[in-house]
Design goal:
heterodimer; A: alpha/beta; Elongation Factor Tu (Ef-tu), domain 3; Rossmann fold; 2 domains; 7-stranded mixed β-sheet; 6-stranded antiparallel β-sheet; 19% helix; B: alpha+beta; 12 helices; 31% helix; 22% strand; globular
């Protein structure tokens, strides 16, 4: 844990992996080696390049990884653009961990889990998926539905194909938006694929992706008979402090940075829909 | 209870060995600025143009410095405040506003920049012997006759009555040349203030229903559209507000490294929540609603009913479109109290 609010620690980018045309995954270590701090799946960290900016990113690696933290970052603005042109060895600033986490040791324990992700929305869920894989005996069946615009836009593709798909007790369902040469898998949007696959309305569901995908996916799940208290999502709003003080990510009486970013859908329904 | 002659006030302030921040004139405005002997105190001014908030939470403050060299970064934290000071002449509403700021900055995790300033200050409150037409502090549990400060002064013609309530307050007051005074005189002053307050136009607003229980009902009120229509999004209300504490963190290239600083921001601004994929409060209606919902519903919902409006009346005076919080309370509330 960062000892002083707002004051970051220094980290070093020790590996840069190109995931998709606009997503890179950065491995980060503390200056002394090892991880900057411990976290739980779903928690976030503020990363910055002094002079460029600071922003909140979900920690995509699992806490069970003892060596490093990873951040999958989509290039979409000033800071992320700068991060994308970094090489290994670049120092950045890191502070956190911030926010709550998916209740992996509470409500999710012993349950069948259905993960549904769209695009870069896989980043926060990957932390949970790998946590669950590391503590496999604590959880039931694992199903993963993941979609992206194209084959090239699937984040973590090698890990999905070489590890997740080959593991017993994990079913992976991939889809892309448009037909593409060399793609023999499913084609279509995530929500309709979820409907097509049809799931028993039991266990817990973790959804993350673009707002429109979350909305239609939740609808599809409700039609299948899932209850709101079985579904979790994680939110992203503009943040500056990360500790519930700067006012930016306030929705209703909640601060997404501190009380979230993970919300159960029944709780989310009690808040103004300003996200 | 102690007292001293009003004419001795400036002498007492000048005799304080620490820096003193008090209501003084700065250009055409009244601010809580550094008091120097010979300056004209403006203790007559209710709703000072700038609030005592900025002594604890400055409009702009440096947080840390970075040196960048190749791929390396060097970080130096800014020193926290370490000098004792006196904040003088704080009204009951502004004192309550400091309690609101305490809730934000001193709650876990503590903001150490704020905490250091708070710790080093001794606050001298000033009772409002003449509450003004824009005052409505009592609606929020504030007593204009009794600021919740380390030391309180009650003006009474050519004298000030004074009392210390904390160790810091006693330490300050012990250094002053004061006389023993009768408690009854202050009781009479307080009663008089109460009567003056009760006669004011916004004295007794009805805050029923402004709580977490009615959050969605208030949020969904059709009144917001009409209320917000004329809002220019200028942010005057937030900058003149003693409790508004939303801030931004930015980096500045000094030519000799990067300075990371914090400055006030406003939820009334269109880029406040803007992200690469858009803004979640896209029009002024949502932004206007956010400000008032936060003060009257969201904040109390998280803070055992404590509102983050203190009824100081500054937004009534400062809004160029006359869109103040009393209008919101009346439009969304259940009418006036009997």
């Amino acid at each position: 844990m960062t000892k002083e609010t707002l004051v970051p620690m220094l980290g070093i980018v020790t590996e840069v992996r190109v995931d998709t045309p606009d997503v890179k995954t950065f491995r980060v270590n503390s200056v002394e080696g090892g991880k900057c701090f411990e976290h739980m799946p779903g928690q976030c960290a503020m990363l910055s390049i002094p002079g460029v900016g600071e922003a909140m990113f979900s920690i995509t690696s699992s806490p069970t990884n003892q060596e490093f933290m990873e951040f999958s970052i989509k290039k979409c603005g000033c800071l992320t653009g700068w991060l994308h042109q970094m090489d290994e060895g670049q120092m950045i600033t890191v502070r956190g961990p911030y926010g709550n986490a998916f209740p992996v040791e509470e409500d999710l324990k012993g349950q069948d889990l259905l993960f549904i992700a769209g695009g870069i929305g896989l980043a926060p869920l990957r932390s949970v998926i790998n946590y669950v894989r590391a503590k496999r005996e604590n959880y039931g069946k694992v199903r993963i539905v993941y979609g992206a615009r194209s084959k090239e836009d699937l984040v973590d593709y090698p890990e999905i194909v070489n590890e997740w798909c080959r593991e017993a007790g994990i079913d992976v369902f991939l889809t892309i938006d448009q037909p593409q040469e060399g793609w023999e898998g499913h084609v279509g949007f995530v929500p309709s694929y979820v409907t097509e696959l049809g799931f028993d309305p039991q266990g817990r569901v973790l959804v993350c992706g673009p707002p429109v995908m979350i909305r239609f996916t939740t609808q599809a799940l409700m039609e299948m008979g899932f209850e709101k208290n079985q579904i979790y999502t994680t939110m992203e709003l503009r943040m500056k402090c990360g500790v519930g003080k700067c006012g930016r990510c306030n929705i209703g009486d909640q601060y997404v940075c501190k009380d979230g970013p993970v919300f159960r859908f029944d709780k989310l329904g009690e808040l103004p829909a300003e996200y | 209870m102690r007292k001293f002659a009003a004419e001795k006030l400036e002498q007492l302030l000048s005799g304080i060995s620490m820096p003193v921040y008090a209501p003084v004139e700065d250009g055409g405005t009244v601010i809580y600025g550094r008091y120097e002997p010979g300056m004209r105190l403006r203790l007559d001014k209710l709703g000072t143009d700038r609030t005592p908030k900025e002594v604890l939470f400055p409009q702009w403050e440096s947080l840390m410095h970075f040196k960048m060299e190749g791929k390396k970064i060097q970080l130096t934290e800014e020193e926290r405040a370490n000098e004792d000071y006196v904040l003088f002449g704080v009204r009951a509403c502004d004192m309550q506003a400091i309690r609101v700021l305490d809730r934000v900055f001193l709650s876990d995790p503590v903001d150490t920049y704020y905490a250091a300033r708070r710790e080093h200050g001794t606050i001298v409150g000033l009772a409002c012997d003449a509450p003004g037409k824009n005052c409505f502090c009592k609606n929020f549990g504030v007593d204009p006759a009794q600021p919740d400060a380390d030391v309180v002064l009650w003006p009474a013609g050519d004298e000030y009555f004074c009392e210390a309530y904390t160790d810091k307050g006693h330490a300050l007051l012990n250094g002053w040349d004061t006389l023993e005074a009768d408690e009854c005189a202050v009781t009479a002053i307080k009663e008089e203030i109460g009567k003056k307050y009760d006669a004011l136009p916004f004295a007794h607003l009805n805050l029923n229903g402004f709580d977490g229980e009615h959050l969605m009902e208030k949020f969904e009120s059709p009144q917001w559209k009409k209320l917000s229509m004329a809002c220019l999004g200028c942010g005057s209300c937030t900058f003149s507000c003693p409790t508004c504490q939303c801030y931004d963190i930015r980096d500045y290239d000094t030519g000799n490294g990067i300075q990371r600083y914090r400055c006030w921001d406003s939820c009334m601004y269109s880029d406040f929540t803007l992200m690469a994929h858009g803004a979640n409060r896209p029009t002024q209606l949502e932004r206007y609603r956010q400000r008032f919902m936060h003060k009257l519903v969201y904040f109390p919902s998280r803070n055992e009913g404590m509102y983050s409006c203190v009824g100081c009346g500054r937004c009534i005076e400062k809004c160029p479109m006359n869109l103040h919080i009393v209008k919101v309370i009346r439009a969304l509330g259940e009418g006036e109290k009997e």
